[in-house]
Amino acid sequence: LEELFGVYESLNKQLGIQICLLLIEVYISTYQLEKASDHIEILERRAFGGPLNNGSTRGDRDRDRDGDTVLGSGNESEKHKAYLFQFRARLHLLHKNIKHCKKEVKNLTTLTGPTACGQFLKANVEYLRANHRKALKVLSSAPKTPIVTEAGECLSSFMFNNMGCIHYEMGKYSLAAHYFRKAVDENDAALNGYPPLDRATPLSGRPLSVLGVNCRHVLLYNLGLQQLYGGQPLAAFDSLLEVVQVFHGNPRLWLRLAEACIASHAKAHQDQIRQMRNKSDTVQVVLGSGIHQKLIIAPMQWPTKRNLDSQSNSAAMPAPTLEFASLCLQNALFLLPSMSAIAAAQGLCPIEDDWSGEPKPLDGPQHVTALPGPPIKGDSIMDLRSCTLACKAYVSLWLGDPVSSLKAAKQLLDINKLPGGMKYVGHLYAAESLLLLGRIQEALHYLNPESINDLTVTSPGAFGTDTERLEPHPVRPTSAGVPGFPTSLSLARATILLNLCSVYCIRKDYEMAKKALQQSVSFYKDNFPSQVILLSAYIEIMTGNMSQGIQIIKKHQPFPTPNALQKRLGSVESPYNIHSNILGPSSIH
Q1: Of 42, 192, 202, 498, which residue is 20 to 30 A from 306 by alpha carbon distance?
Q2: Does residue 522 register a pLDDT over 70?
Q3: Residue 367 dihedral angles phi and psi, to the nearest 5°
């Protein structure tokens, strides 16, 4: 198309305009917005003699040498104007420029009257303003048209897709998934009305205008995200796996596929993760009586690594497993620009890199292509990379590969302006990796609770300050609804202190372990993790206080009692002030 546009002057007027319109559509669909804007201005000058203004142009009255209008019939002229108004409105939407978008939509409605395209654009404006009720009302009032229009668009599928997007923005993920399923069904129903595809004959008896009617993979992408947010990781994996066959160059899609595998793994073992929350779960059985009575403690049944040699479970076979998640994360890291490329673009010193042999260069000034969505820009590239590295460290730990986990955690912590939540998990994963490698002294460096000051996980939202939002963005669930990430800064520091206690126990420094555990308990209210009880009992038993350890298990209360703890808090010496380091997410993943 670009080559044809280069010889625009030598082409028939109508053919040249059609080529230019198609080229603009391609630019917008691939998010090349600057090129689209430039070609719109060129087409306005060549076809209308100047910029369009409220539906009237001086070019409409211009005549060529033969006395004919530049565009031919009046109907064709109005049709081309409508396309240009539509293109401009879409460009303003993608730029989040609501004021100018409203103006272009008004021009389009004045020219064509109420149409489905105009209503969709109006609803999109209200969607960006977070005026969800009005957006739904505008969508429901859109003109009813046949399943597939002459332009090859399935409007009913578009309608349900937009309804799903609105409900997603409202935080109603299950309802959004319902609408996306209906959109997929409508898309499939529209395709069933045409002859099946035949690879030997590209057209397969179908009209040329409907070859692009299939939006199934875009709809499945949206559906997969809703299922992931809604706590259905297996369903999300199936949806996203079909999408990745088409949009395999999208690093964010590979990350979402890996997150579905991770969430599926975590959800399958929630019973073990929540195990031993009360006394009946902590004590497995009581044997004997009197001085011969024994308490058998229930073991922590963490998932064991599967044997990939059984059956045909190769890590490369698509399945919701951590092995496949590791491959997905590797692909995401390969598609993202290297740390050295990002540092060079930001004018920083180069950083040692990387997971891939040939780092992917940036597509432009800090742009990464991510179809079917817009390109990833600026800080979003670093956010995506930090999330991918955090997942890589987590998966490597579960797969028993502390070397890869340590590498990912260190690269994560090397990122400039890393959000506090990412720094928190980076410290835990690096400390546990070093502990598994037997490098306890190095691991101590990562367990200072004072190093964690906040738990944010991403940079500020993508919406600019000029966007007129009526409501704030909804709070998204973490880990697809799977519990585990601390909900407050105090709980995050308590987790670090609890792991600090574990390391002191490994080093047989039980006095310091007791002080670290007491500080950790002070951050909790009544719902203590099972590790608190077990560590309390373990420390008492190893220091010779067997009866005290038994009482801790029987009462299911850590030492000392809450009242006594409050009296002693002022005299408890901070373990991370004595030793500036110490480790351990061994007991809490």
Answers
A1: 498
A2: yes
A3: -120, 140
**DSSP run (H or E) holding 519:** helix 510-523
Residue 240: Cβ within 10 Å count: 26
Torsions phi, psi for 337 (to 5 deg): -65, 150
pLDDT at 204: 63
Average pLDDT over residues 260-282: 67
How far is the C-alpha of 586 from the C-alpha of 78, rounded, in Å?
69
* pLDDT tens digits along 377-421: 888 888 899 999 999 999 999 999 999 999 999 999 998 888 888
SS3 of 226-241: the string is: HHHHCCCHHHHHHHHH
Classify residue 554 by burial, with Cβ atoms within 10 Å: 0-12, 13-18, 19+: middle
Q: Would you state the structure tokens that stand for residue 105, as one six-digit string?
A: 């939509």
Amino acid at 466: D
Tokens (6 digits) for 1: 């198309």
Could you tell me the maximum CA-CA distance found in the chain, to the nearest angstrom? 115
Residue 243 pLDDT > 90: yes
Q: Do residues 434 and 583 lie in contact, with contact meaning Cβ atoms separated by under 8 Å?
A: yes
Which helix (H) or strand (E) segment holds residue 296: the answer is strand 294-297
CA pair distance 440, 435, nearest whole angstrom: 5
Cα dist. 74→60, 61, 71, 222 in Å?
9, 11, 8, 40
Type of residue at 353:
D
Across 203-207, 345-349, 405-409, 452-456, the highest mean pLDDT is recorded for 405-409
> β-strand 294-297 against 283-287: which pairing, if any?
antiparallel
Q: Give the residue with greater pLDDT, 169 vs 576.
A: 169
Least confident range from 83-97, 170-184, 317-331, 441-455: namely 441-455
What is the secondary structure of 106-145 as a DSSP string?
HHHHHHH-S-HHHHHHHHHHHHHTT-HHHHHHHHHTSPP-
Beta strands in 352-493 (DSSP E): 367-368, 376-377
Residues 575/500, Cβ–Cβ less than 8 Å: yes
> Is the distance from CB of 571 to CB of 538 less than 8 angstroms?
no
Rounded CA gap, 538 and 297, in Å?
11
Q: Is the pLDDT reported for residue 330 higher than 70?
A: yes
Give the SS3 label for residue 213. Answer: coil
Q: What would the pLDDT profile of 115-157 be if each residue is shown by its tens digit?
A: 888 889 999 999 988 889 999 999 888 876 666 766 677 888 8
Say how far apart CA 134 and CA 142 lie, in whole Å. 13
Alpha helices in 204-338 (DSSP H): 216-229, 233-244, 251-268, 270-273, 279-282, 322-335
pLDDT confidence of residue 57: 42
Q: Which two tokens stand for residue 507?
A: 């080093």
Percentage above 70 pLDDT, the chain: 71
Cα separations in angstroms, 470 against 128, 129, 132, 574: 9, 6, 9, 47
> Which amino acid does the sequence have at 559?
F
How far does CA 568 lie from the centroid of its chain?
44
